[in-house]
Write a structure and sequence with these properties.
With 175 residues, the chain is an alpha/beta fold. 34% of the residues lie in helices and 24% in strands. It has 6 helices and 8 strands. Helix 1 (13-25) runs parallel beside helix 6. The radius of gyration is 17 Å and the shape is globular. The chain starts with a strand and ends with a helix. The model is unreliable at 142-153 (pLDDT under 50). Bound molecules: flavin mononucleotide (FMN).
């Protein structure tokens, strides 16, 4: 089965996962902007990953536009976010981003990502802090969140290549 991995990543976390998956599955890896409908004819399976921003998988609409009619392809999606892994949130992401949007079945995986607080714009920081407040990350690792103060070298990184194992094993088991 010939597989392509496509990603959209703002800060590099999704890109790292995409490259890891590409390496493990011996698949081609492309940034979403490089992809054309024509290119897809060479592949049987398309894996798309995007960072999650305010519950939306970055790039998913462009990806759907490119692949919506590719009915003969198998589609897998992964989202990369800061949320802890819990089913209610993963189901919510599926409903918002994937359910009823694809003509074919699209399986969804969630991996944890990260962020360099000091590299965010003021608006990004506000949006992210609001999100973190409603998750357990707030207690878990960023106790200073209520003051909005930010040590300049503060990195929150929950990513680990092991998250990608579930997707890789799924593909290998369903090839
Ligand atoms: C402005 C902003 C909003 C975010 N919103 C969410 C969110 O709704 N859910 C989530 O799980 N993570 C959220 N995150 C965390 C990002 O998804 C996380 O940093 C991820 O690693 C980004 O992947 P990327 O670097 O590949 O774009 C947000 C981050 C920022 C900066």
């Amino acid at each position: 089965m010939k597989t392509i991995v496509v990603y959209r990543s703002k800060k590099g976390y999704t890109e790292s996962y995409a490259k890891e998956i590409g390496k493990q599955l011996d698949a081609d890896v492309y940034e979403l902007g490089q992809l054309s409908t024509l290119m897809l004819k060479n592949y049987d399976m398309i894996i798309f990953g995007g960072g999650i921003y305010s519950d939306k998988i970055n790039g998913i609409d462009d990806f759907i536009n490119l692949t919506g009619k590719a009915l003969d392809k198998r589609i897998l999606i992964f989202g990369v976010g800061m949320s802890p892994v819990f089913n209610e949130y993963i189901e919510k992401l599926y409903k918002i981003n994937i359910e009823k949007k694809f003509s074919q079945d699209a399986k969804f995986f969630f991996f944890r990502g990260g962020v360099h607080m000091d590299r965010l714009t003021t608006i990004e920081r506000k949006v992210l802090l609001a999100f973190l407040k409603v998750t357990e990350i707030f207690q878990e690792s960023y106790t200073d969140v209520t003051t909005n103060s930010k040590p300049s070298d503060d990195v929150l990184d929950f990513s680990t290549p092991e998250y990608a194992d579930a997707l890789i094993q799924y593909v290998q088991g369903n090839g």
